[in-house]
Structure formats: C-alpha cells, structure tokens
TrEMBL record:
Stated name of the protein: Stage V sporulation protein D
Keywords carried by this UniProt record: Membrane, Transmembrane, Transmembrane helix
UniProt biased composition (Polar residues): 729-743
Superkingdom of origin organism: Bacteria
Recorded GO MF terms: penicillin binding
Family affiliation: Belongs to the transpeptidase family.
The organism of origin for this protein: Paenibacillus odorifer
Residue spans crossing the bilayer: 7-29
Subcellular location: Membrane
C-alpha cells in the first residue's frame, strides 16, 4: 500500500516536473528563440498611425482675392439596413431626389443594396449627386433627415453626412483656363492646378505611437512624428477685375457672332505680366463635369492654337522697315495689286482696284497688302525672316502655363511668293495669340521681347518665405526710337476715323495704337473665303503703355472683319481697364487768371490743335505723329503756310488737321470723305476753289471739275452709317471688311 502510494507520488511528481520542463522549454523557445518575431508582432498590435492631412495651397489674384482654395465638403451616405428596418425607404428616396436631383430608380437601388448573402449593406455613398456637396446643400440634407427622425420618432434614419475637403473656385468660370481644376477625388487635371500640383499639394504628416488593446496610449510609448508640410500659396499676375471685363466683353461678342471659338489676352507690356486670359467656350471648374464629353470648353486656345494671323502680323514687317530706316510715311506707291517675280497671279488689296497712288502711312491705315509686299522687297528675304525670328515667332514664349504651342514660320526659301505673303501674315505660318501679344508688347515697351508669366509670387506657409518672379528680357529686337515711331504709325490706324481700319478701337481721352486682322482660313490646300479668323491687337496709352490686348474671333457666323467685330471688344476691355487702373485721360492746359498759373484739366474729347504755321512740313508731321493726331498734307511745298483747324482750336473725336503748303497753278484737293460739311467748306475755302454741295450729312464722295476757268469741287453728302459711328456710310468700293486675300 505504501509502495503504491510512493509510486503514485513519484508519477505525479514526475508529470509535474515534466510539465514544468516543457513549460520552461516553451517559454525559452518563445522568448529566446522566437523572441524577435513575437516582439515584432506585438509591436504591430501596439503601433497606431494617425495621418495629418496637408492643406492644398491657395491660388489668388494679384490683389489677394482667392481664386482657388480647399473648403469643407460633405458626402451623403445611406444605411440600407437601417432604412429597411425603419420602413422609411419611400420617404428617403423622395426626399433625396428632391434635394440632390438623383433619379429615384437609382436611389431606390442604392438603399435596397444587399450583399451576396442577401443581407442589407450598411453604408453606401450617394454618388455623384451627393458626393462632396457644399455647406448650404448639406444643411438642407441634415434638416431633412432630422425632420424625418422626429416624424417617425426614431433616432437613426439611415442617412448621414461625412465631412471631407474639396477644391472650390469662388469666382466660378473666371480665369478657368489658367487655373484648371481638380476632380472630385482631388486629382489635378489641367491648368496651374496640374502643372503646380507637387508644390500645391504638399505632403501629409504622420504620428506613430503605441497603445494597449483598448487604444489607450502606453505610458512609455515611443512616438515618431513626421511633420505635415502644407502646400505653397500662389499669387498670380491676373487681376480679377480686368479678367471680369474681358469675359463680359467676350460673352457679348460670342452671343452676337456665334464663332467657333474666341480668345483674349491682356498683359502689362512693360513686364509681360498677364493681367487676364480667357477663351470661349469655357467651363466652370466647380462643375467641370457639365462641360460635355467633347471637352471643347477645356481647350486653352490662347496658348495652344496656331493660326494664320493675317494683318496683325504686318506689325512685324512695319517694325522691321522702321528699324532699317526704310519706311518713309510720305513716300507713295500704287495700291490695288502687285506681282511677284516667278508667280503668275497678282497679290491684291481687299479693295482689288486699290485707292490709287497713296502714301505709305495711308497704306498702313488701310491695311494695304501691296504696301507690305513692297516693304518686304525693300527689306529682302533674309532681313524679314531674321526679324520674324527676333520677334519670337519660331519659339515658345516660355510662359509658365502648361501646353504652350511653338507655332511655325516655314516658307520655302526658293519660292519668293511664300516670303511675300508672310509680310502680311498669310502663307506657311502659324502663330499663337500669345506670341502675337508678346511681339506687339515689344513695340509698346521700347523694343524689348520679354517672357510672359502668370505666377507673381510663391509663398511657403511652413516657413513664411516668399519668392517673387522678376520680369525677364529675352532680347532687344528694335531700338527704342524705332519702337516709338512704329507705335505712332499704328496709332494712325485707330486715330483716322475715315481711313483707319482700327477706328472702332478709338477710346475717348486715350491714345490707342493697334492693328486689325482678317485671315481667310485654309482647308486642305485651298483658302475658304466663308471661313475667316478676325482679330485686333493693340495697346494704350501710346504715350505711356499700361495694357496690351489681343482679341481673336475664329469663324464668326457673318461676313465681318477684325475692325468691326474684334476692335469693339478691345475697346470695351481697354477703356474699362484704363479707368480701373487710374490712368488719367489726356489733359489740356487752361490758364487760371487769378493765380496766373497753367492748370491741367481732364478734357478727353477736346484736345487743342498745336500751332504749326511756319514750321517745315517734316517738323509738322513729326509733331502730329508724336502727339497722335490724324492729319493730311495738302500741296507739295516745304513748309506749312496755313492750317485747319487753326492753332488752339478744340478738336472733337476723329477730327483731322489739314496742313496746307504753297499751291501751284492748280490747287491740290485733299480727300475729304468722312468730313463734316463745315470742315470741308473751311478747307476748300482756304484753297480758293468753287464749291457745290449735294445732299446732307458727311462727305461720301467728291468730284473735281472746272467752272468759268476755276476749279470746282462737288461734295456729295450722306448721313452717318448704320453703326452710328462718326464716319460716313461705306461706298461700294470700300464695303466689307479689311480682310486680306490669300495667295
């Protein structure tokens, strides 16, 4: 018995000993042999990561007005299980349909969604109508489900809101093609949002810490912190007010002419800061999905599309001729047509019969193709092509916007006809609107080709450091004196209210230089006269340029030229912008008798005639060009004997000054078309000729003859034209646009 007890005790003791040995071995195995593995698994269970979301940088205009920023957004979610349990499906469908506009059948499918086992799902987002909605709509959704809960006396209705962030553009479509947009997932799609995405989005921060099974942070937690880096903030050169002027003017023209597209760019010609840029059709980045699958509204024609520019390109040829001292404003040529050696067809002006023997300056005013072909012949092929290159037409401008096109000027050097047509903007040439604006800005700023830009400042919110973009000069294309002269000639295109093709761009109180263009478009290898691209490019004020603007209208639905369609758009934008910028109008000097001082007062419509009598004709011409007056020389004498209006006369808009020199046996009769009867009679009286008048209004035609051995001038009068402009109704020879014939 005792022996049996001892054996049992030994057995039990052995088992216990063996158990402890196994336990010790297991503990040793776990803690020593597999200790590192278990340590890693434990660390994984203890470790928690908290992400700190980086804030995407804001984009603002030059005055700090926000154009793009992150704002709170809310996504509507539904719980099919709760909705089914409460039996409120019909009310949920009806209410969300009315608030979000989502079709009822799609909502019903959403709230009745089940898994593969036939059980109702718990949380479903209402996309896309309820995805990242704004605060106002979110408040309405909340009011709805709170009221639904009270009506049914339930706490949970199965409807909720999840707070998120979204990109918001407070000014809607304003500057949309510059800004671009991000989609609902926050992915940058186009514009600055895409090209600056890395700098805008920043990088998320992270906090790594250790906690127990309940999620409570351990006292000896080893924390790791990666700081958040918020995105940089960008201030643009864009002025929201000028951008608004641009888009409002474009909307009117777009509605009137229903073109394929429109583009407008405005810049400060002294720095090439882009003040505004817009295209039609356009889009609202807050509702980008409404633009349509074809995506026409997303295309930034201002920097991506290339066109045959037409007459606006004549500015380059003119500037080259002025720089080379080849342009004499009083030299004459026979307008109408011109032939190029080796080419069977003649090149024509829009008025194929021409205007007779006219001066070079009148050729600029009338946008004569023949004149610019003659200037090409004077310059020669190599010099013209070199100036085209120097003005930047075979390279990108370098603007800090994505997708800029290079353009091309690629004539066959063995075909002089292709170089000749380049002189007036037709042929083997394709330029962007921005390239043209950069070129004309070089005329405005004294001959400097500059790099355009839209990013004015970049601020790092994490450090407070700000980087400011400085204006950059690419090269000096022409000297300052040549640029000034070229600008004065371009001013005559606008100032001459009879001959100037740009007269509709005239702005009361400001000196405006500009050039119209109407390019017939090519389809295949042929020019199609029914499809044109009309444009106007210019700057103001000529004496101290503050803004340069180009207007492009592609395929208007009626026959119209750049002078009639694009120039008024330019006028509306620039006149508003100059006043907004505080640029003073032209002032006249008046005498203050009490203080015996000369006081300058704004008198935009009443500039006074300078005293030119006794000056040489050359001095008089230079004075009038420098001050931007429209004038005509009568006679071939070397000095001014009389002038009309006389010195000190206050001039109304578009009134011309006549410089009369010594007359021969037969007096030289100036062209009086467009003049009032009073002005025409005054000039003819000074010339001591007989006068006959037919009709009323303004001079539309003049006929020279003789009566009793004296010169007789018959004036035929007509009322103002249909546009109510202070110019006569067009005669049949001049009707239509100033569009140019293709080769």
């Amino acid at each position: 018995m005792v022996k049996r007890i001892k054996l049992r005790t030994l057995f039990i003791g052995g088992c216990i000993t063996l158990f402890f040995l196994v336990l010790i071995a297991r503990v040793f195995w776990i803690q020593v042999v597999e200790g590192s593995d278990w340590q890693e698994k434990a660390a994984t269970l203890w470790a928690h990561t908290s992400t700190i979301k980086a804030e995407r940088g804001t984009i603002s205009d030059r005055n700090g007005s926000v154009l793009a920023s992150d704002v709170p957004a809310y996504t509507v979610v539904v719980n099919p299980a709760v909705i089914a349990e409460k039996g409120i499906g019909d009310e949920v469908v009806k209410g969300l349909h009315e608030l979000l506009g989502k079709p009822e059948d799609e909502l019903r499918k959403l709230i009745e969604a089940k898994d593969e086992n036939g059980k109702y799902l718990k949380n479903r987002e209402v996309r896309n109508e309820g995805w990242k909605i704004d605060q106002e709509l979110a408040d309405k959704v909340k009011e709805f489900y709170v009221a639904l809960g009270k009506e049914h006396k339930i706490q949970e209705t199965g409807i909720g809101l999840v707070r998120e962030q979204k990109r918001y553009y407070p000014k809607g479509s304003l500057a949309a093609h510059i800004l671009g947009y991000t989609d609902r997932d926050g992915k940058a799609i186009m514009g600055l949002e895409k090209s600056l995405d890395e700098q805008l989005k920043g990088s998320d921060g992270k906090l790594l810490y250790q906690s127990d099974g309940q999620g409570v942070k351990l006292p000896d937690s080893k924390d790791t912190y990666k700081p958040v880096v918020n995105g940089s903030n960008f201030k643009l050169t864009i002025d929201s007010t000028i951008q608004k002027y641009i888009q409002e003017a474009m909307e009117k023209a777009y509605a009137q002419y229903k073109p394929k597209s429109m583009s407008v760019i405005a810049a400060d010609p002294n720095t090439m800061e882009i003040l505004g840029m817009a295209n039609m059709p356009t889009f609202n980045p807050n509702e980008f999905w409404k633009t349509g699958a074809e995506g026409a509204g997303f295309y930034n024609h201002a920097i991506k599309s290339t066109y045959e520019p037409g007459s606006t390109f004549k500015i380059v040829t003119l500037a080259a001729a002025v720089e080379e001292k080849l342009f004499d404003p009083v030299a004459t040529f026979l307008s109408g047509s011109i032939r190029i050696k080796g080419y069977s067809k003649a090149l024509h002006d829009i008025n194929r019969s021409g205007w007779g023997q006219i001066s070079f300056l009148e050729g600029v005013k009338r946008s004569s193709n023949v004149l610019f072909v003659k200037l090409y012949e004077m310059l020669g092929q190599d010099r013209l092509l070199q100036y085209i290159d120097d003005f930047g037409f075979n390279e990108k401008t370098g603007i800090d916007l994505p997708g800029e096109a290079k353009g091309f000027v690629n004539p066959n050097l063995n075909r002089p006809i292709e170089i000749a047509t380049l002189a007036y903007g037709h042929g083997v040439i394709g330029v962007t609107p921005l390239q043209q604006l950069v070129a004309v800005s070089a005329i405005a700023n004294g001959g400097k080709l500059m790099t355009p830009y839209v990013v004015k400042e970049v601020t790092d919110p994490n450090t407070g450091d700000t980087k400011v973009t400085q204006p950059s000069v690419v090269r000096q294309v022409i000297d300052e004196a040549s640029a000034k002269k070229t600008g004065e000639y371009l001013e005559q295109v606008v100032a001459d209210q009879v001959k100037g093709t740009g007269r509709n761009a005239h702005i009361e109180g400001y000196r405006v230089a500009g050039k119209t263009g109407t390019a017939i478009k090519v389809e295949g290898k042929d020019y199609v006269k029914s499809k044109v691209l009309v444009s106007f490019i210019g700057y103001a004020p000529v004496n101290d340029p503050k803004i340069a603007v180009i207007v492009i209208i592609d395929e208007p639905n009626v026959e119209v030229g750049g002078g009639k369609a694009a120039a008024p758009v330019f006028k509306e934008i620039v006149s508003q912008s100059l006043q907004y910028m505080g640029v003073p109008k032209l002032a006249t000097e008046t005498s203050d008798k009490d203080s015996k001082k000369t006081v300058k007062t704004d008198a935009p419509a009443l500039r006074t005639t300078p005293d030119l009598t006794g000056k040489t004709m050359k001095e008089a011409r230079e004075t009038l060009l420098d001050q931007g007056f429209d004038f005509e020389v009568v006679g071939e004498g070397a000095s001014v004997e009389t002038q009309y209006p006389e010195a000190g006369t206050k001039l109304v808009q578009g009134q011309r000054i006549y410089l009369l020199s010594k007359q021969g046996d037969k007096p030289t009769i100036p062209k009086l078309q467009g003049e009032s009867l009073r002005d025409a009679l005054e000039v003819l009286t000074l010339l001591k000729v007989e006068i006959a008048v037919e009709g009323e209004g303004y001079v539309s035609e003049q006929i020279e003859g003789t009566k009793n051995g004296k010169t007789l001038v018959t004036l035929k009068m007509k009322p103002l034209n249909d546009n109510s402009e202070d110019v006569p109704a067009s005669s049949s020879a001049d009707e239509g646009t100033e569009s140019e014939s293709g080769p």
